[in-house]
């Protein structure tokens, strides 16, 4: 195995330390404590795990965490009323509605009801538009975490060929915008892309956000390329015992690591950076709300 392993877990810990230091300064110098409200509708097990760890880490960096757990059959009107209340609450600087929502709730309507200044997930149509036009916005956490790791590894990304596999609004599209913003030559691939292996083979940077376990094999990777694996997939792991499972990404780690220059592992790569960026976005939102200098 030749690739440098990009340690997202360690990187995320340094981001959280910086966030904690900034939070401490906000409290000491301005008497302000950033607050993050997380809204969970229903009892999806994966969402419950995410919400728990978001709440725990919010408190660990010294911020206030407000959790709102609503019944699975909560009406759209009740959810919108809660969002309205959080929009008007000066102690709440960030609002995150955990996705996916139960089928009877209109996801776009709900997300677009969040005050864009408090939309720490960066999914509100205003933030999408601001990012797309290169203006100051709230940047979606997962792509932001990927960009931070790429910048830390490469420094300047200018002129690099980047292929993003996946065009979702939460990962693929904003990732492509961010890479374009850093002057990469960007290709967005998706399920209709012709000859995906050839498209991926020309990339200096591959970001895989597909949701298909180990889909990208090493022989699609240009020697020395950097591979960022966003995927989180649970697969059977009979080698660990009957009924056991394990997490894998969207790339086949061993064969890709043998040829790539650098690669993020799953778990321990993009995942931890996502939550760290959520905390960083909440501090940014708090600073903007109070007219204070933003963290770098
Ligand atoms: P979506 O299902 O919304 O999007 C998947 C994308 O992959 C679509 O654009 C789809 O194309 C494309 N795709 C599907 N099959 C293929 C194929 N065979 N070849 C090429 N492209 C294909 O997923 P998300 O973007 O929400 O998530 C992607 C992965 O990232 C998942 O594993 C998810 O769990 C993970 N994730 C991880 C996060 C983290 O914190 N690490 C955060 C968010 C997501 P088309 O549009 O044509 O259908």
TrEMBL record:
Enumerate the UniProt keywords alphabetically. Amino-acid biosynthesis, Histidine biosynthesis, Hydrolase, Methionine biosynthesis, Multifunctional enzyme, NADP, One-carbon metabolism, Oxidoreductase, Purine biosynthesis
Any idea of its EC number? 1.5.1.5, 3.5.4.9
Record family assignment: Belongs to the tetrahydrofolate dehydrogenase/cyclohydrolase family.
Coding gene? folD
Q: Name one Pfam family in it.
A: THF_DHG_CYH
**Quick one: which residues bind NADP(+)?**
166-168, 232
What interactions and quaternary structure are annotated? Homodimer.
Q: Which NCBIfam families match?
A: PRK10792.1, PRK14186.1, PRK14188.1
**Highest taxon, organism lineage:** Bacteria
Q: What is this protein called?
A: Bifunctional protein FolD
Q: Which GO terms describe its cellular component?
A: cytosol
Q: Where is the Tetrahydrofolate dehydrogenase/cyclohydrolase catalytic domain?
A: 6-121
Q: Which InterPro entries match?
A: Aminoacid_DH-like_N_sf, NAD(P)-bd_dom_sf, THF_DH/CycHdrlase, THF_DH/CycHdrlase_cat_dom, THF_DH/CycHdrlase_CS, THF_DH/CycHdrlase_NAD-bd_dom
> Which reactions are catalysed by this chain?
(6R)-5,10-methylene-5,6,7,8-tetrahydrofolate + NADP(+) = (6R)-5,10-methenyltetrahydrofolate + NADPH; (6R)-5,10-methenyltetrahydrofolate + H2O = (6R)-10-formyltetrahydrofolate + H(+)
Q: Which GO terms describe its molecular function?
A: methenyltetrahydrofolate cyclohydrolase activity; methylenetetrahydrofolate dehydrogenase (NADP+) activity
Give the GO terms filed under biological process for this record: L-histidine biosynthetic process; methionine biosynthetic process; purine nucleotide biosynthetic process; tetrahydrofolate interconversion
Pathway per the UniProt entry: One-carbon metabolism; tetrahydrofolate interconversion
């Amino acid at each position: 195995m030749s690739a440098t392993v990009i340690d997202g877990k360690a990187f995320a810990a340094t981001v959280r330390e910086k966030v904690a230091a900034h939070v401490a300064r906000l409290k000491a110098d301005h008497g302000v404590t950033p607050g993050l409200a997380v809204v969970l509708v229903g009892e999806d097990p994966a969402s419950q795990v995410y919400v728990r760890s978001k709440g725990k880490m919010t408190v660990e960096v010294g911020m206030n965490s407000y959790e709102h757990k609503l019944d699975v059959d909560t009406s759209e009107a009740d959810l919108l009323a809660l969002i309205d209340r959080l929009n008007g609450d000066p102690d709440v600087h960030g609002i995150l509605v955990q996705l996916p929502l139960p089928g009877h709730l209109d996801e776009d309507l709900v997300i677009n009801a969040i005050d864009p200044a408090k939309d720490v997930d960066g999914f509100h149509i205003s933030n999408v538009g601001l990012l797309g036009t290169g203006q100051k916005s709230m940047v979606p956490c997962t792509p932001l975490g990927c960009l931070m790791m790429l910048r830390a590894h490469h420094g300047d990304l200018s002129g690099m060929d980047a292929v993003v596999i996946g065009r979702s609004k939460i990962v693929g599209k904003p990732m492509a915008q961010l890479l374009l913003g850093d002057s990469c030559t960007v290709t967005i691939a998706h399920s209709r892309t012709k000859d995906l292996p050839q498209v991926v083979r020309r990339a200096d940077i591959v970001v895989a956000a597909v949701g298909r376990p180990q889909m990208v094999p090493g022989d699609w990777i240009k020697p020395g390329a950097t591979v960022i694996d966003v995927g989180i997939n649970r697969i059977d792991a009979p080698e660990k015992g009957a009924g056991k499972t394990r997490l894998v990404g969207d790339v086949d780690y061993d064969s890709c690591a043998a040829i790539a220059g650098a690669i993020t592992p799953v778990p321990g790569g993009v995942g931890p950076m996502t939550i760290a960026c959520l905390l960083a976005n909440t501090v940014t939102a708090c600073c903007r709300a109070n007219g204070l200098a933003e963290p770098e």
